[in-house]
Specification:
CATH architecture: 3-Layer(aba) Sandwich
Strand content: 5-15%
Family: Belongs to the TRAFAC class myosin-kinesin ATPase superfamily. Myosin family.
Distance between the termini: 63 Å
Protein name: Myosin motor domain-containing protein
Strand order of the largest sheet: 1-2
CATH superfamily: Kinesin motor domain
Largest sheet: 2 strands, antiparallel
Oligomer: single chain
Pfam families: Myosin_head
Number of helices: 6
GO cellular component, one term: cytoplasm
Helix content: 40-55%
Radius of gyration: 21 Å
Structural class: mainly alpha
CATH class: Alpha Beta
Number of strands: 4
InterPro entries: Kinesin_motor_dom_sf, Myosin_head_motor_dom-like, P-loop_NTPase
Shape: globular
CATH topology: Kinesin
Amino acid sequence: MMCVANVFLRNDVDNFADVPNLISLQYLHEPELLHAVCNRYEQHAIYTYVGEILLSFNPFQRLDLYTPAHIEAYAAAAAVMKAPDDTALPPHVFAIAAVAYQSLCDEHKNQSILVSGESGAGKTENTKLLMQYLTTVGATTTTTASPTSTVHPPSSRRQRARGTQSTASSHDIQTQILQTNPILEAFGNARTVRNDNSSRFGKFIELQFGDHHKI
């Protein structure tokens, strides 16, 4: 005899690597959701959408998921994305950052990203990746000319030099922002049973973007 309360219907899915968003499953109960994310994790699919929320698992190994090519891919897809899962690209922390940045540009309103989880879940590393994406696109963004406008090259050596200095300055700011992470960790991190470099403090990080949405 088995209690009916302990019987759960199973989704007709053989490989959950093909299910990037768990909301699309027919049956959404705890055992099936756990089975789905475990199946994806075994295939190194550490990111999974639950609606517009990104669920992330610490892989405890280095994965080739954060290259400049990945940033470029999600930045290119962001123009038509209304939500992080509104793309053929796989779930990724860069997709969350891409939608936030695109909304900032389109709506001219402040955007917030909340990173929450248990100790050792990878919150700090994912926050660094969010900052990496935002500082990269914020340092390389340029104004898009309208179809009727004409873009003229710099008319003098001084103007060209000015443009070069501006680009170098943006990359310097990007580097400085990313280098704040180890400084803060030196004051607020400690070793725990779960994590050798655990954040022992909460962080509120604000990135400011100016003209032409540049950082």
